[in-house]
Amino acid sequence: MHATDWLSFIASFTVVxxxxxxxxxxxxxxxxxxxxxxxxxxxxxxxxxxIGPRQKIILLRVKDEDILVxxxxxQINTLAGFPLSSEEMAADQVSATASSEPxxxxxxxxxxxLNAAKQxxxxx
Length: 124
Known about the structure:
The chain is an alpha+beta fold.
């Protein structure tokens, strides 16, 4: 192999790795409802800890309450519930409005842009 073949191979491999990273990042954002046009999830996983091969403790946020659940291969049990303080609720509402700011789906915004461009073309 020539040096240019190696450089081409390394460049191609780097591009593939970067694309893989972008796809994984997008999938993670989609899972959390963080992409524009997606509604935020009502149930959020705040933290997870594994305590055994098939056992976990998960902290969930549902509406105005944090719920601690134990998960095994056979069942899910509620361990405790914690009401949110007023500061936590205010911070949660701020983050919810910030994540839902681009409320219109991407296709609707694109259609609006096309309509505006058509009106400018017809009017001018």
